[in-house]
Sequence to fold (587 residues):
Amino acid sequence: MRGIALCGPVGLSNRGMGFPGRASRPGHTPHAVARGSRLAARGFLTLTYYSAKQRFAAKHEPSLSHRGRGSFKTALRCGVLALLLAVTAAASAADQPQWGEAWSRNLVSAETGLPATVEPPEMDRDTGRAVPGTGKHVAWVVPLGTRTYSTPVVGGGRVLIGTNNGRPRNPRHADDRSVLMCFDEADGRFRWQLVVPKMSAKNPYLDWPKVGIVSPATIEGHRAYLLTNRGEIVCLDMAGMANGNDGPFRDEARHAVPRGKPPVPPGPTDADILWLFDMMKEVGSKQHDEAHSSPMIDGRCLYVGTSNGVDRTHRGMITPDAPSLVCLDKETGRLLAVDGARIGPQIIHSQWSSASRGRAGGRDLVCFGGGDAVCYAFAPVGDPLPEKPQTLRTVWRFDCDPAGRKEHPLEFQDNRDEGPSLITGMPVFVDGRVYVTAGGDYWHGKPQCWIKCIDASGAGDVTRSHEVWSRPLNRHCMSTPAVADGLVYITDCGRTVHCFDAASGEPVWTHETRGEIWSSPLVADGKVYVTTCSGRLWVLAAGRTKRVLGEVRLDSRLYGSPVAANGRLYVASEKYLYAFEQGATVK
Fold:
């Protein structure tokens, strides 16, 4: 099996030291993180000083000669140098507790020392486990279900990823279920899982069979937030049931089984649901195919897309007036706000995108990609939190395909020549600009698609006034752009990786892969990591000169995006989760 030959230095991982994540950690502002780092450094410097002094005194007491004082200073300088190296390593190693950066959604990472070569290990057919001593630069590999579309997140020493129940870990839940698995970040040990029954088999378009949980979770402290396959927003205890059943939600035994089946009491490897908000019940949304959204935390607020979509005939909307975006109190699950944009009547398939946040024109904005191909900027819910649900105020709207809007959009279902567009990826908010992709629906629409750059300082309808640049892509696009060092990287379903100049939109280079790309590119350690549906992990040099650094074929198709955290590169195939680390060997 071919490995990946990459260029890059070997970095230091600071796993397990407990340093907070950089500003990408939800709930932490850049100033708070910097302050925490300074306090941590000050404390360690003090500790280093006194430790060095005590060690030297124990050796040279009762008196300190001139030479002894010099030796003490030398020892102290060595201790401080070692500390600075450790703090530097810690600064470049951080969790990845949500999809992309908080809050821009930019999938870039400051991690360094990511593997220079990657070769997956041999897998034991009987156990489904990696054969010890095989592969290159692999910390661990763990089996998932049989179909995995989600992207892993890393936080608090744990790794969370959604999958299906194709390889049940609990014989009490052995049929078609959707699953969120929790693993130990250090060694991949299984900790707990959330098992969610599929919805009614009478209408598979609400919850497609064998798909599993596709939404990425978001971790903050001891809690994780997730949109399940049943359209439920849940808050989970990161410890699972190992520390008991906390509340106020206490009905995990019934929640884990299909309707009409007897409850199954949870065990220590089951998830602990703290609260649950059922969007289909509370706001009337009706998802299509599968619920998908990456929760975004903004202070006390939790923004989640509803996945509202067409009915099973694809010719009508069940609830066209239902919201596409909701905002909850992350502490209690109470509904705070919904959008009032009436996206539903123009949806050609479903609402796939998630929210981002940034600042432009002196205002904080929550951006959201609509299933109607419109990028919306809403005023965020402020403090104090409203006592009753309110409607999010629209600050501006940008139509990514004004020529594609139709009076009756569903009449163009399966029309590959013309028709409406939609936004599938997330809008990325960087330096007062929003980068977003839009185009025809992959399953039922035209192949044309674009990447747009929007000046986010406007108000009202900014379609004509605030477009900075627009560039066509190859064919269909479900990806989120990554912006780094003045360049924008984006992939499309036409097997192409694109690099554009972030300021002007001028094409810099393209690269053709050997498979469709449903995932989004990751920029980290001077590299661009791309996964394809053909099961290949591509690595290219980040920058204006295209260089292919490597390519490797993993065990099965790759739908989720790669992520970097704490010195490791995480890649999920349909069947396995890989943790690649420089110099590591599977044990």
Notes: Helices lie at 30-60, 66-91, 252-255, 279-282. The domain at 289-429 is CATH 2.40.128 (Lipocalin). Confidence is low (pLDDT under 50) at residues 1-76, 78-91.
